[in-house]
Design goal:
alpha/beta; Globin-like; 9% strand; 16 helices; 3 domains; Methyltransferase, Methionine Synthase (B12-binding Domains), Chain A, domain 1
Amino acid sequence: MTNTITASAVSSVDESFLAAVGDGDEYAAVEIVHGLLDAGTPAQRVMVDLIGRTQLRVGELWAANEWSVAREHAATATSERALAAVAARTTVRPHRGRITVACVDGEWHALPVRILAEMLRMDGWRVDFLGASVPGPHLVTHLHQTGPDAVALSCMIATRLPRAHAAVTACRSAGVPVIAGGRGFGPGGRYAQHIGADAWAANAEEAVSRLARNWPPPSRDPQLTAFLGDEEYTYVVRSRPSLITTSMDRLASAYPAVRDYDERQREATAEDMGHVVDFLSASLYVSETQIFTDFVDWTAAVLLARKVPAVAFRAGLDLVRDQLTDFHTARAILDAGIARLSNPR
């Protein structure tokens, strides 16, 4: 009965909280979370079911081109303020151990992992929250200085997998086991296993539960594939600038409408071309074509919401493919992405 009341209480303020963060109204957002806490809603439910779920909706509204990047950023900042208000109401003396919580280098989506940090504090951990985009050497220095029992590492975008791999390897070399989380580690966290993480959790609650029992996990050897950092991956990474520049130079011939683009549109197109190369690189790194096809599915939807036709995206993929004549795996991955544009889900 309590869970039903709690779920109902959170659900009843969903739209009000979304409106508050959408307006950047931190006072209204904080008032909403205080109201839920005063009514007896557990802090964990406020963080996960209200703040976390609202942040997912914020991302969906940006993807659908209903919210601008600036509004999305303002909403995230407001959600962080609300999360801080929840955290300020909950104090638990550490009794489990010490844990470092961080985003991998280049990963800037810090709110989900900050929710994890606060939930771990409430579960009795002493938490060092390092925030977004933590360079590997700085992370390792911190581990040597503090000697934590675990590292919780977040990766939301698969293009960060090579850096996540470096961080996991460094943490394990320092004798600290790693629990990984975030969409960047793939369905069921299978890429986390590829790069040697000791454990993976689908969400903050699962991570808290996993860390509370049988930690650290038994030591095991990373189940690395033969493709981590192979020749094709190395070539694509090193050739990234020329792949993008050449594709942009040839785009007008392949897709004449680009000649009418203004400077902002051309910059956005070059950025999208960079994403194509980066997701191709990530797919090559762990030999997982799905990384690239998922990227194609998502990007096609985002571009369509911005009235960019699939033929324009297809032209960009073709132009990158044409430059990789001798790289059969990379071309096969691009072919799989191109096929998704022809036969969308």
